[in-house]
Structures
1.
Amino acid sequence: MTGIDRHWRHVLLTGVLCSLWGCGGNPVDAPDDPPVPVAVHEEPDSAGEADSADPTEAVISGFRFHVPSGWRRTELTPAQQGFIDARFEIPASGDDVKLTLSTIGGGVQANIERWQGQFRMAPGVSPASETVDVDGITVTLVDLRGEFQGMNQAAQPGWRMLGAAFEGQPRDFYIKLTGPESEIASLHDQFREFVTTARRTER
């Protein structure tokens, strides 16, 4: 074989190898470098944290709340997921007392009327409400008493609901505390503080 033939054979072999494995770098089939991990801050699950003597904080649906001592955030049941954002229990007040937070549409007035429709009030008793400013947001506070008929729940005489409706876009934000009237009465001030000291995490 002449020198010229050897030269062209070398060129041909080099071309074949390059087409199979690539030339001058990593092999063609080598995976890309894995992405650099990015630190992600995840809010700790606050379920059970409120058992400590000191109040805690909870971030829910864009709001930061000061959680009173004795309030315990609990996991949502499968039936509640997608309907409410978070819920709290207050063990010292009994199993019937529940606090829920949710983000829904429909308008504040329509939802407050729906709350009122869940109560059969005694003659002469009317819903109590007031409007307050919470971190620049108009919030309607509602106080309802009477026989409560919640969704999928038997009628409960002598119950009370404290509610807060935050006006927002595109959806409003709601907080409800329900339970026997005697227990809710003892939680009135804590509920009001929980609502009125809420602060938005973003503007």
2.
Amino acid sequence: HRLWKAFTIDRSGVREGSRVLDVAGGTGDLSLAFARRAGKSGQVWLTDINNAMLTHGRDRLADKGFLLPVAQCDAERLPFPDNHFDCVSVAFGLRNMTHKDRALAEMHRVLRPGGRLLVLEFSHVWKPLAPLYDFYSFKIIPRVGELVTRDEASYRYLAESIRVHPDQETLRTLLEQAGFENVEYFNLT
């Protein structure tokens, strides 16, 4: 996931002075990377609907010397003005949103014209690999989760939520319906 996040940051176009919104930012990994790029003249907001995750992310960022603004909010009702951000990101959070279309429309609303939305998410694998991937996702990952974190259920949910998340082309259509242009995706693994 670190390589995927680095790829996402590299595609962001964020530079000194950029305004960035990290939706469902949780632990703050992307917010930290964006803050380093945006510099002191930039602004990076960390948001999440889950207060415990938001607090954890805020504390991690503060421990690293970054006091970023945070907002507990629902991605379907973002508390930011229209056309405000240069970049909006959502990493491993879109699949958990009930109304993806509304969340994407909100992200589009707060993004300035010419800005960039980055969605980092699990999706469907190449069909010939699907049986192996299913075995790995439903048998191996939950067992490892149980051994490492004593939380098999969360890792089983991860596999299940990936299966019901839209595939790449369906997500592209949702993005275009929300008003995004020049939509492209990259299958990273």
3.
Amino acid sequence: NLKKENLDLLSRLAKLDVLEQENDFLRTALDIEREIGRDVIYAHVFNVNLGPDGYNVLLNKGARDGVQKDDIVITGQKALVGVVEEVSNNFSRILFVFDPEFKITARVLGSVTAGIATGAYREGMYLDLIAKEDEIKEGDVLISTGDDVFPPALLVGSIVHVEVNESQMFKKVLVKPTIANQRLGSVVVLKKK
């Protein structure tokens, strides 16, 4: 009987732990909904892998849940994950920030230096259109500008390398996406306006 009671208690403890995590995430997501001013859908990333055709990132919500093409996917900390690319009835495929088809207008936090961040597979991202005279350095944080379909102040990444070539008009800037070292799980889908 003691073994059975112990298993029952462990099961209850596990359920309580899951509910606490879910409650914390929902509180965060509600704050995002109020702050950004868009409807949100709570979802979960259940697959992330790099295949021959690029990244395959799947979301456990689809058309029946209200997810639509071009909805924006972020973490609870407002780190950019990507954009909904394809929608099925029960799940969706995300165009991941690492994908070369992914683009966002981004700027350096606390600066006017801005460019177009583009996915670069395993390398992360590149920040294009940064002129030689633009101030940018390793460690700078990139955020969304709000000048495109993305709301402002989403965390995009941080600068890991800046290369200047005197014969080139623009600097070569390598970016590590904010989500690079995060384990993706619960996410927030921001409905497009």
4.
Amino acid sequence: MQKKNMNEENNDWGSIGIGAMIVFIALILVAAVASAVIIQTGEKLQQNAQQSGSDTQQEISGKISIITVWVGAQTANAEEITMVFELAPGSEPIADSAVHWSVICDDGANTPSVVDGDMSTATNLDTTAIANNIFLPGETYMIDLVVGGVANGNADCPPTLNEEHSMVINANGGGSTYETLYYQSLTQGDQVV
């Protein structure tokens, strides 16, 4: 039987140690790459969540809540509807001229007619003028919207018995409100929302 030399035994241990060291370094590199991917994914998710939050806040911070709409004065070629509204919860103050309304209806020839304008003629519900022409959260406002007649080059959407009209209210840089107006009666004061 031949005896192993002490030098050969140390060489085997050294080669085993070098192999283990290579595997250890490879594991550290894999862990570093995996952690970089996880950190990058976390940052991207955070950025997306912040952007979504900003978009949602922008959408809500400038939105109108319609409380009620009723048939207004029915003067020929200047038919009105009256709307009572407020800013949605969480909204920022908005200039009255920065809020626009549109009423969309069928003109009878299967093409849409649109009547629109801004909210600069709105008053506080107690019929006082709006301070600095700015809608404030917590205040209730009222406006008469002329939807009949051809005013300012707009089309004609007068209240018509048993018809549905669409109302859209947009705040510049804010949200939109959609409502369907259904005319079950044309008597002044009868609700259409």
